[in-house]
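ok trying this again, last paste got cut off
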Amino acid sequence: MYWGFLVSNLKPECILICLQIARAFGASDIIAVDIHDEKLQKAKSFGATHTVNAIQEDAIEKIREITGGLGVDVAVEALGKPQTFLQCTQSVKDGGKAVMVGLTQSGAVGEIDINRLVRRKFCELSCSSQ
């Protein structure tokens, strides 16, 4: 099972928690995506099996390559930006789950392909502490 994490702006302890949750839910492979090599190295040291620097390469393309063209079973977006929202939804395989936990400014809009959501049995989840 592949899990993908967009880990920008997460503190090291949050990255560790995310990776532990992925392992607890059966992830055999964990892909961490960020734009900072230091954070990717930290994610790797905490157990990520793959890292993707989204500045140096197309994150969606690289995730598809790593997963044999399928995409991840579960993607977690923890930044709260429209671009990472879109990357998260596009990195999930058919029937997979995208979990949105990143917060953003009020009124920010994220796009999603409606046909993909409906026809490919893709599931988008959001989490809130409120």
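PB: full thing came through this time. The chain has one domain: 2-126.
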